[in-house]
Amino acid sequence: MSNGTPLGDFLRARREALKPHDVGLPEHGRRRVPGLRREEVALLAGVSSDYYIRLEQGRENSPSPQVLDAVAQALKLDAESTDHLNRLCLAASQRPHDWGEADVSPQLLQLMEGWDHTPAFVVGPALDIMAGNSLATALHSGFDKFDNLARMVFLDPAGRDFYQEWERAAHSCVAEIRAAYGHDPESVRIAEVVAHLSAQSPEFAALWQRHDVKSKSQEGKHLKHAQVGDLHIKFAAFTVNGAPHQQLVVYQAEPASPTAAAFETLRSMGTQPKQARAEATDASM
């Protein structure tokens, strides 16, 4: 993913995203580097320039919590980015040992399938779709495959029509994978997804280099399904108990709303993604 270290890459990206006036420093003449200089970050953080350079170059492996807090403040990191910074400094032995792929529990599968009026699905750290109920499958029937949210957003032609706020969806996907990467920089699956999307999508590659961090939260979405039209949904994501690398994503519609009626139509249609429909057709021949 990079020739540097995860910590160094993150610090460099966040430093280059800031201008001197963002942190109250004067800006004189033409600057040879984008954003802040390393020496300016060191000054703001109250550490020596040599120490900060070693930190960014990966030659300082155990910065104190006080130093990390000072650097986070100097770079104007928010709470999620500060947590990400601290995770990147953890040794491999300090990282969670269960941060990997695992099957979705039968209990969770049964629970989701019982929500026949609410799309629900489980995603892994790289935004792979690990399981979904029937309505979630129907909702994403315009895509070639209901397999990975980031691939669907960036590479599937249906993505830009389905996500009416495409740029917001794109930024969210990349920031969510970046947040998961902070938990497990050695993840083979995250590396595979990032490499594939970076090679196929310049937009993904550019966003990945920004090192923005944001986990899934609760917000609204504006989607458009080819068969039932506009959908205005509420969205929430929950960490799965016993499997912290999995997240349960739930879409909800306001009661008695056009979106609720559209969900009911999708439920009755029982539509599937294009690949699933093609496989079903082949099997019947």
- Count up the helices: 14
Helix content: 40-55%
Please state the average pLDDT score: 89
How would you sum up the global shape? elongated
Instruction: Give the termini separation.
Output: 44 Å
Strand content: 5-15%
Radius of gyration: 22 Å
Q: How many β-strand runs? A: 5
Structural class of the helix and strand makeup? alpha+beta
Question: Quick one: biggest sheet?
Answer: 5 strands, antiparallel
Low-confidence stretches: none
Sheet with most strands: strand arrangement: 2-1-5-4-3
* Succession of helices and strands: HHHHHHEEHHHHHHEEEHH
Assembly type: single chain
Walk me through the structure.
This protein has helices spanning 6-16, 38-45, 49-56, 65-74, 79-88, 106-113, 134-139, 149-154, 159-162, 166-183, 188-200, 202-208, 258-269, 274-284, and strands at 120-123, 129-132, 219-225, 229-240, 243-252. It is of the alpha+beta class and 285 residues long. It has a five-stranded antiparallel beta sheet with strand order 2-1-5-4-3. A hairpin with a 5-residue loop joins β1 (120-123) and β2. The chain starts with 5 loop residues before the first helix and ends with a helix. The mean pLDDT is 89.
